[in-house]
Amino acid sequence: MPAPRIVVLAGGVGGAKFVRGLRQHCRTVWPDGQGGTTALITVVVNTGDDLWLAGLRITPDLDSLLYALAGVNDTARGWGRAGESERVSGELTAYGVGWPWFTLGDLDLGTHIARTALLKQGLPLSAVVERLSARWPLGVRLVPATDDEVETHVLVHEDGEARELHFEEWWVRTRAKLAAERFVQAGAESAQPAPAVAPALAAADVVLLAPSNPVVSIGTILGVPGLRDALLATPAPIIGVSPIIGGSAVRGMADACLKAIGVATSADAVGRHYGARSSGGLLDGWLVDRSDAAVVEGLTADGIPSRAVPLWMHDDTASAAIAAEALALAER
What we know:
Layout (H helix, E strand, L loop, with lengths): L4 E6 L2 H17 L10 E6 L5 E3 L2 E3 L1 H11 L16 H9 L10 H15 L4 H9 L7 E4 L6 E8 L2 E6 H7 L8 E5 L10 H7 L2 E4 L8 H5 L4 H7 L4 E4 L2 E2 L2 E2 L4 H7 L6 H8 L10 E5 L6 H6 L4 E4 L6 H16 L1
Parallel strand pairs: 1-2, 1-9, 2-5, 9-10, 10-13, 13-14
Antiparallel strand pairs: 3-4, 6-7, 6-8, 11-12
Helix pairs in contact: 1-2, 1-13, 4-5, 7-9
């Protein structure tokens, strides 16, 4: 198989782990002789978590992927930069600016300041991401799902009143303990995919759905007007990796998000939520964990060819093995 053109739809930390593994696998199978790969990997990243805070444009999922691929992420916390200090956040809190429960590290703030400055100069987000990515040899191309400001909001009841919270406030401040009644993509009605998205999907040999949150990561990407159509128009096989193992979310609180849309927290329920491409859904194939092997036969009978493989992303080697299985299923 020649070096493929791969498009990945991904959210934050889980998506970053998967893409690191994919990059490692591609470097092994299709090396370029310089420590990289001849495979072309484009990652379409969720921007629904983005927000303005203290005058800065924050892009949590793009930054998680950027830092992880650059090897400068904080692996202990799972987010942010390694070796961080938080003096500036302490000063902001003292002045009553920003969210005291949403801590931004000093190195991280450097990224946000640079991004905001470039946006204020008139650059679209995709061009800004390209500028920031050029600092490190990432080995993949990061592309925001949209250059437009489309933010995920959550409708909840708090203290007896109906409220609409930014997703990050619901996720970080409340730890998703307030029942989500509905997710809203504020600004989506006038948005469109970033310019590089449709061409990348049209030219792809394989499209992979990372094991990211199916509601507020992958679902938010697909909610950008025109993006789902561009995905369905690709001639490439679309292979998904389950973010649910043994009835539990691999990371975060995806179960709270799935409950809000009436989908069970199980590998087969999420697979059926995405649907078989042969029946108008998305998937040409679906990977589940070995602990969920019992659902493979039923999913396959429903038009979603599935395989049970180890899905725990303990390290890059394990993630690379998962990526290899996804590509193998696509080739079949």
